Amino acid sequence: MSEKGVRQCAAGMVLFREGEEGNRMYVIKSGSVRLTKRIHDTEVVVEDLGAGEFCGELAMLGEPRRPVSAVVTDDASVIQVDTEQFEEMIKGNSDIALRMLKKLTQRLTQAQYRVSNLVLRTNKARVLHQLRAETQRVKRVEGAGESAPIPANLADVLALEIGEVKQILNELVRDELILIDRRGYFEILDGEAYDRYLRYLELQDRFAFH
Questions:
Q1: pLDDT class for 2, splitting at 50, 70, 90?
Q2: Which span out of 4-8, 113-117, 169-173 was modeled with the highest average pLDDT?
Q3: What would the mean pLDDT of 65-70 be, rounded to a whole number?
Q4: Measured on CA atoms in the order 80, 91, 103, 65, is the torsion positive or negative?
Q5: For the stretch 44-68, what's the b/e string if a residue is b when 16 or more beta carbons lie within 10 angstroms of its beta carbon?
Q6: Angle formed by the axes of helices 83-92 and 94-119, nearest 10°
Q7: Strand partners, 47
Q8: What pLDDT, on a 0 to 100 scale, did the predictor assign at position 176?
Q9: I need a labelling partner for 95 at 20 to 30 A (CA). Which of 52, 103, 144, 207 fits?
């Protein structure tokens, strides 16, 4: 694709807003873009994207209204792709089509976790739930066990204060549910005990608010 489709975007620029109609997608050449969604009165981080990733593709697949907002978080260079260009890309390169399908599947899985997480009212249960999701994601990609990096944007993803997230993580370490190393990776020490405690909090949460 020629450089004429490349757009330079400063940090803070909005590529598109949730609910708007769209007719193009964006491929990120450099920089970073954050996807967010409004849940009640809270702006929730859906995903942080970097070079080589894309957003806005649903507008190419028959969904004109944007389900999320996309904001540039670090000065970025993006390729704007309209419907005609998109169809040419898909027809001419099966690798692109397969990569996009895998990415859409990944985003659907993440969305399912996010919805089930937002239903939880107890913040500790939400942190536990998200950490479990992180280990499952790493296991799918790398075949790893019960360890994964703590996401740098964990507080944003859960729409919680950073201080509260740190306090909950410290409590989980104190209760010997997880271990955090110097790299910022956490390990679930006893998977069965961890999942039992999470189920207990989920049940407690469910019945406490009914």
A1: very low
A2: 169-173
A3: 91
A4: positive
A5: bbbbbbeeeebbbbbbbeeeeebeb
A6: 120
A7: 35
A8: 95
A9: 144
Reported as a single tens digit per residue, the pLDDT across 83-138 is 888 888 888 888 877 887 787 777 766 666 666 666 677 899 989 988 998 888 78
| Spatial CB neighbours of 78, under 8 Å, sequence gap ≥ 6 | 6, 7, 9, 15, 26, 27, 28, 29, 31, 33
- What's the distance, CA 96 to chain centroid? 21
pLDDT over 90 for what percent of the chain?
42
User: Which residues 6+ apart lie within 8 Å of 51 measured at CB?
Assistant: 28, 29, 30, 31
pLDDT digits (tens, 9 = 90+) for 16-37: 999 999 889 999 999 999 998 8
Is the Cβ–Cβ distance between 164 and 123 less than 8 Å?
yes
Which residues have CB under 8 Å from 146's CB, separation 6+?
135, 187, 188, 189, 191
Q: What's the sign of the alpha-carbon dihedral 74, 4, 23, 21? A: positive
Tokens of 171: 């409590």
